[in-house]
Amino acid sequence: MRWTELEAAVADAARHPLKEVFSREPDRLARLTLEACGLTVDLSKTILDEGVVAAGLALADEVDFGAWRAKLLSGAVVNPTEGRAATHSAERGVGSEADVKAAREARTAMKALYERIAAGDFGAVGRVVHVGIGGSFLGPALVIDALPASGPVPDVRIVSNIDAVSLERAIEGADPAKTLMIVVSKSFTTLETRMNAESVRDALGLPAERVIAVTANPDKAHEFGVAPGNILGFAETVGGRYSLWTGVGLAAALSAGWDAFTDLLEGAGEMDRHFAEAELAQNLPFMAALGDIAYASILGAESRAVFAYDERLRLLPDFLQQLETESNGKQVDRNGHRLARPSSPVVWGGVGTDAQHAVFQMLHQGTHLVPVEFLAIREPGHSMDRDHHRQLIANCIAQGAALLAGRSFEEAQRETPDEQIARAKVFDGNRPSSTVVLPRLDARTLGALIAYYEHRTFSFGALLEINSFDQMGVELGKNIARAIASGETASLDLSSKALMDRLTSG
Ligand SMILES: O=P(O)(O)OC[C@H]1O[C@](O)(CO)[C@@H](O)[C@@H]1O
């Protein structure tokens, strides 16, 4: 049983203080600094020593990792509960011939629509209101925020929440004659999206020709009143949280430009090929996932934190939260058996340096094990000189160094003779972190980065033998909400019933 070996290797590695690893393993930095597709991933400040990596590779063998990766990338069924493949990589040119062809055809239709909008077929478009939630929101929002607005419609607003505050903000000051709504919903049955789309349509008095739908369920979009020529389809086999690469990215393409959208796909495709071909010990997504498994599933870390030291990636933690937790927050394996060990940790994070003044106290001295991931970009996203970028990067590096080295009581005492104060100034250190470095943030490196996380998420699930592509856990809450909203509160527990009354009666 390879899990036993991996657990033993992790326990063994955990016995050695992390801060001593560089002197114990002189080649460690070189061995655990992996590069591909413009990304450099430094895993050297994690538990991945030679023993853990060897045991992880053996586990990969035992769980048929290679075969499952091949299934993913060739369009075979990897989502058994829904009897589906997961063909997001086909959108980037890596998949079965039929899937790649279908993706290309859908892209041609998307490009034609993009060009019609850019050419003024919809009149002058001053603003696009993108309506969608979950995977139909987080990926496009990330790209729109991260890349410069150099496309034909720089003013793109997004409405996701059913709380209409978000909607009112998105349409504030909009000229109805110059506003286009893009309703994005894979299922086209999502309550929030349908209600928001209706409200935007009514509030602005948008005619059918100014409404576009992107969906894997065109009949529903048609029933909703969207003209057939304004409906972009995509494959049912592309999961919502993996759908940015399809017409779901139309608003992102309108904001960043078609060339940028194409580069995004190319960068992701490059990462697909790296994931498919690189041997596992050099495979970025696999190795990062092995670290995630060691911390979450073996050492019991209940969360993992991601800090982008770059304002342009401030939405990355939100995107990863859905990607990783909705994919791998499962209690059974793909055969329906209860998992023997923890699955997805809570994924959270923020942007550096802001987060240093909020949560880093806990990361440095708190009592929880939280593996931290930093992202840093060599080329700044601004043209200010002074020392902004150097300070930003120095702060990023300093956090990882401090997490590792810590500060002993003796060191603290050198700063203060007061024992009580010195004790409060002790940092245990030996806290793990990894760092992803990009040379610059452009559409290509962003595409590679997002695909890296997609495949890392898949790799984590494959090692645990999870189905990473369904999301049954969101159904029950949706059903109960539907019942409550229509007045069926009789079967609710007393607390929930009282809360509903307090919030809505009278
Ligand atoms: O794109 P749709 O079908 O509106 O779904 C939105 C989101 O809802 C979920 O199904 C979960 O509620 C996500 O997986 C999905 O991204």
UniProtKB/TrEMBL annotation:
<feature type="active site" description="Proton donor">
    <location>
        <position position="326"/>
    </location>
</feature>
<keyword id="KW-0413">Isomerase</keyword>
<dbReference type="InterPro" id="IPR035482">
    <property type="entry name" value="SIS_PGI_2"/>
</dbReference>
<dbReference type="InterPro" id="IPR018189">
    <property type="entry name" value="Phosphoglucose_isomerase_CS"/>
</dbReference>
<comment type="pathway">
    <text>Carbohydrate degradation; glycolysis; D-glyceraldehyde 3-phosphate and glycerone phosphate from D-glucose: step 2/4.</text>
</comment>
<comment type="pathway">
    <text>Carbohydrate biosynthesis; gluconeogenesis.</text>
</comment>
<comment type="similarity">
    <text>Belongs to the GPI family.</text>
</comment>
<dbReference type="InterPro" id="IPR001672">
    <property type="entry name" value="G6P_Isomerase"/>
</dbReference>
<keyword id="KW-0324">Glycolysis</keyword>
<dbReference type="InterPro" id="IPR023096">
    <property type="entry name" value="G6P_Isomerase_C"/>
</dbReference>
<feature type="active site">
    <location>
        <position position="357"/>
    </location>
</feature>
<dbReference type="Pfam" id="PF00342">
    <property type="entry name" value="PGI"/>
</dbReference>
<feature type="active site">
    <location>
        <position position="478"/>
    </location>
</feature>
<keyword id="KW-0312">Gluconeogenesis</keyword>
<dbReference type="GO" id="GO:0004347">
    <property type="term" value="F:glucose-6-phosphate isomerase activity"/>
</dbReference>
<protein>
    <recommendedName>
        <fullName>Glucose-6-phosphate isomerase</fullName>
        <ecNumber>5.3.1.9</ecNumber>
    </recommendedName>
</protein>
<dbReference type="InterPro" id="IPR046348">
    <property type="entry name" value="SIS_dom_sf"/>
</dbReference>
<keyword id="KW-0963">Cytoplasm</keyword>
<comment type="function">
    <text>Catalyzes the reversible isomerization of glucose-6-phosphate to fructose-6-phosphate.</text>
</comment>
<dbReference type="InterPro" id="IPR035476">
    <property type="entry name" value="SIS_PGI_1"/>
</dbReference>
